[in-house]
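Q: Here's a chain of 297 amino acids. Please give me its 3D structure as tokens.
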Amino acid sequence: MLRRLKAHRSVGVATAVVGVLVALVTPTGATAHSGDFAKFNYCPSTNAEVFKCLYSVTSSGEIVLGKKKTPITNAVTLQGGVSKQEGTEAEGFPSRFFGATSGGETLSKAAQTVPGGLLGIVPPEKSPPLVRLLLKYFESGLLEVKATLELAKPASEIKVSEFNLSLEEGVALKLPVKVHLENAFLGSSCYVGSSSSPLVWNLTSGTTSPPKPNEPIKGSGGELNFKDGFEIAEITGNSLVDNVWSAPAAAGCGGILSFLVDPVINSMIGLPATSGNNTAILNNTIDLAQATDVNAH
């Protein structure tokens, strides 16, 4: 009898330990889905208005802001849920977007290194190796500048159109963003764009029609594949582009000295920049799954 009690007590302790470990590895608001469905842990799939879960990773591309081009080298993730298609065909049957659940980021904050650093010195492509190595100094230490893309509006302001994405025309993703510029000298409040004056990207997998000096650029709907018994649709080689948007002046740079620093930063970058002087190219892998399938895993 004593052995049996000890055995039951051991099982109880083990169960409690497992419960604690699960609580530690599953953040608040997340659902622990299995296998390929784990990427949808922060999808609000239990919301009755959510029809599909979306998980998109931008692994490369570039952002041209005025005179400054910044390559995307650190992956940026957009995740959440989308409603059933709404609106008209002329609008591309857009879906409403629902942000990631508590503990997850709807748009991950992945800092990108700004070429040339604070001084903005970028060597020509055919410069001697020694010159390029020397100028790399301006991208490091106190002169290093990081640019981080952040949402400028609530997630509900994002719009998604699978119809336009596959058709390669019209707006596939409307994304209101701001760019956070960080450096020891610039402080922590240096932004291009804000909640009241966002950079509004109307990204397309088709061809843009920008004003000069920009030229039309072409996106791509990518290649559609299915996983897990056709329950997950994976789109690889997707490219969303927009070079029609405008950008306001930078603000909040240099802390209490922003009234002196802002004009310098704006002059270096070429801000404000009207439509036809900016570009966003996002190269993505997109995963989509119906909310009911996600909940089943």
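Q: Can you summarize the key feature?
A: The radius of gyration is 23 Å.
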